[in-house]
Write a structure and sequence with these properties.
Blueprint lengths: L5 E5 L4 H12 L6 E6 L7 E4 L2 E7 L10 E4 L3 H13 L3 E4 L15 H4 L9 E3 L3 H17 L1 E10 L6 H15 L31 H14 L5 E8 L6 E9 L5 H9 L4 E3 L8 H4 L5 E8 L6 E8 L3 H19 L1
Helix pairs in contact: 1-9, 4-6, 4-9
Length: 334
């Protein structure tokens, strides 16, 4: 790995790919060259990066020659095809799709939690689900100081988690409702404008959705707690950017709201709110931090707490987390 690597964004024209481009510039990620890849339909488009313009190239099987780090912002199907090609060309792949996350031997990394899972010879690192990324740094701190016994999560997920077409659908439905026109739903199973949909991704055989399984399974893997008692309900809400989570934790030992607030306040990347204050999805869009408020005791169990966690799902929940991984890898192993 070179100290100034050649980096590629695969899926550069999508919502997450565009955020990766912005984060690479803002974090002053060391690199000698940046290449943008997307489908043939987007090839030839121009995007600004620092003081230059970059041309989007068509993604092909030969795209990864000379690439040191490939940041994938693609579907699971495209990642399944192209990540092995990137690895075969010698590139480190950091994949934002769900395809490799639960594969044995593939590190699933949130830098604040388990950055040591990556090694010098690692060629593939999975970026977790956006809802998981904002959850596990808080759970890790609680577990270290009080021992997690059971966790219950309800998510309130913005439409950007489903991509640009989903954002357009919310916008168009809202306009049509105000103009008394018919509403059409193509991306979501129900109308999303002025509505909440308790289904994110497809249903599994056990009645949970695939998204709910992601939160459960990925949290266990990242925290290295395979037997953690954890359950989730994931809901899509009519918000453009940022995911919120209502989290209830039952602990082995006592941990007061004040003690937890102090611990979180001392942690990197977490913004803590006073007891009667709270972050909202609109307020924190565009920020890097994990925002935690409404920390209060749950008196229904001996050692319980309730929390409200909010983060920008496109930024911290995807692009920023991936770039942070790349930055640490270069700092440690170049």
């Amino acid at each position: 790995m070179r100290k100034n690597p050649v980096i590629a964004i695969v899926g550069a024209t999508g919502v997450v790919g565009q955020e990766m481009l912005a984060v690479l510039e803002e974090l002053a990620m060391p690199l000698s060259e940046l290449k943008l890849f997307a489908s043939a339909d987007s090839a030839g488009e121009y995007y600004k990066f620092k003081n230059s313009e970059l041309t989007v190239e068509e993604l092909t099987e030969k795209s990864f020659a000379g690439i040191d780090i490939a940041l994938f912002a693609t579907s699971a199907e495209l990642s399944a095809k192209f990540v092995p090609l990137a690895n075969a060309a010698g590139a480190l792949a950091i994949d934002n799709s769900s395809h490799f996350r639960m594969h044995d031997g593939v590190p699933l990394v949130v830098p604040e939690v388990n950055i040591d899972a990556i090694k010098k010879d690692t060629l593939l690192i999975a970026n977790p689900n956006c809802s998981t990324i904002q959850l596990v740094p808080v759970l890790k701190i609680i577990h270290q100081h009080a021992g997690l016994k059971r966790v219950v999560i309800s998510t309130y997920q913005s439409v950007s988690g489903a991509g640009k077409a989903a954002m357009d659908e919310l916008w168009n439905q809202t306009l049509n409702i105000f103009n008394q026109r018919d509403v059409q739903s193509d991306v979501f199973p129900r109308q999303i404008a002025f509505n909440c949909i308790p289904q994110v991704d497809r249903f599994m055989d056990d009645g949970y959705t695939k998204e709910e399984h992601k939160v459960i399974d990925e949290s266990r893997k990242i925290l290295d707690l395979p037997e953690l008692r954890i359950t989730s309900t994931c809901v899509r809400v009519p918000v453009f950017v940022s995911h919120a989570e209502s989290v209830n934790v039952e602990m082995e030992r006592a941990l007061s709201p004040v003690e937890l607030m102090k611990l979180l306040d001392d942690a990197h990347g977490i913004d803590v709110y006073d007891a009667l204050e709270y972050p909202s999805q609109l307020d924190i869009a565009g920020t890097d931090g994990i925002h935690v408020g409404r920390i209060r005791a749950d008196s229904s169990v001996p050692h319980g707490l309730n929390l409200w966690i909010v983060a920008d799902n496109v930024r911290k929940g995807a692009a920023l987390n991936a770039v942070q991984i790349a930055k640490v890898f270069v700092e440690r192993f170049a």
